Amino acid sequence: MKKNIILKTTCLIALLFAAQYLSAQTLSDAIRLSENEAYEKAEKAFNTVITADGSNADAYYYQGQNYLRLEKNVEAKAAFDKGISLNPNSALNYVGLGRLAWLNNDTAKARENFTKAKTIISDKAVKKSDKTKVLCEIAETYIYSPTKDLVAADAVLVDAERLDPLNTDVYLLEGDVLLEKDPTNGSGPIAKYNKALELNPRLAKAIIRKGKLYKRAGNPQLALDNYKAAEAIDSSFAPAYREKAELFFLAGKKALAISNYEKYLELNSDCSAQRRYAYFLYDSKLFTEALVQLNKVQSTCGDWSYTNRLTGYCLIETGDYIKGVASLEKSLANKDLKSIMLDYKYIGQAYAKTGNDSMGVYYLGEALKVDVGNTDILSDMASAYYKQKKYSDVILVLSNKKSLGKDLSSTEYMNLGNSYKNLKRYMDADSAYMKVIEKSPSFANAYLNRAIVNLAMDTMVPSQYLAKPHFENYLTKVDMADPKAKNGLMNALEYLGGEAWKNTKDFVKAKEYYTKLQTLDAENAAAKAFYSSAAGK
């Protein structure tokens, strides 16, 4: 019974929220939809509002902001321009043009528009709340854009707080600036968010921010408490469920993560939300689920420029390399979509996995051109070169990785050592194998290879038996029952038996080694020679 009540309540909330979408006739309703990440529905709502009353210049600003969230920059500019044509003193629309210029890396044009906006609001006739709104919108550009200017944001927010010390948005943004400046110190941002909550205890945006900060700080329980508090205040605020989903995933609670994301989608079924969910599944390494969601997006929302890219990534992650490469090649052929490092990296990895190492190296090289300092790509390239037995290239690539301050893995040091060994650079090989042992002390083959290169360096007559300690260490680490270790064991036992027989004259020890050797090779010539000698009698 209780389960049915909960289900009915959930459905009712979703229906009411859907009804809100359908009946959104006011500007505040349209803004609310956009804040709730329902950008497509907000787009329709803004069109409805503007069709009903096209004289409100501010409506064009908010419409333009929504277009920016949909990555429709041309439409956004048209909206801002229309707002200014209706009202040349529309400060918000100048902010919109400034934000668009900033996103296009035209910082001079952006500041010019921000200055126009601030000049307009300097008029005493402009209401205090309108002035503060303009300043906060300028600050948002500086804080949230890929290219940030936190010093400029600070300066704008100082003016905003002086103008309106009771405005909650000012404190939220001040907290965000502090967090961007020092992501490791949450005390300052929390104080600002709490200040906003003092002014408005039911401010869901402030509570969500606190939750995100606690999640970032590795305190999932406090994060969850805040998300639940925001949900209790406004159960239709979709981002709260999305944040909970991401939190549950980080906690390893896959089922709860998916159920909360599904709740988010109940409240916001926009195509942009459906696409965001696909990205969430990919980022969460739920690649099979992501492919299902991408198929759903394709069937319900039509073409999406990122479908082939994300599908290719997921196919390659699930081992379907041929289809993955085909999907990514379609993505690369899309001239409207800028290629990124991951496109080339995934294709390179896929080719390498299918044995086409030359193509793998080519595409990994293309990835490295896009992201020169990416050491993961260098690791993949080194692996592909090693399979091709291009040992000089292995050494060059792994040396480059080390020069960038990134240590090598045990496998990479092993491949580096083997590359040096194959090029007869035995001292360098020995140094690399020492690194393997340092990182993986139980890895028997590292000791075996140290023995082999030291044996190669032992050119003096009589022998210095440089390989002895390394063969001895090898025998303490190797699994004697492992059939793959037979050759290594025979080499070690034969060498150590010979050293005990002819160098240290420890015939008991020599007999021990040769006896073990004969269990592996009854016809071994060295063992037979020992037992035929006086020492072996």
Order of helices and strands: HHHHHHHHHHHHHHHHHHHHHHHHHHHHHH
| Biggest sheet details | none
Global mean pLDDT: 91
What class do helices, strands and sheet pairing give?
mainly alpha
Radius of gyration: 33 Å
Distance between the termini: 90 Å
Q: What is the oligomeric state here?
A: single chain
Tell me what portion of residues adopts beta-strand conformation: under 5%
Write a structural description.
By secondary structure, this protein is an all-alpha fold. 76% of the residues lie in helices and 0% in strands. The protein has 30 helices and no strands. It has helices at 2-22, 27-35, 39-52, 57-69, 73-86, 91-103, 107-121, 128-144, 150-163, 168-181, 187-199, 204-216, 220-233, 238-250, 254-267, 271-283, 287-301, 307-317, 321-333, 341-353, 357-370, 375-387, 391-403, 410-422, 426-439, 444-457, 468-477, 486-502, 507-520, 525-532. The relative contact order is 0.03. The model is unreliable at 1-24 (pLDDT under 50).
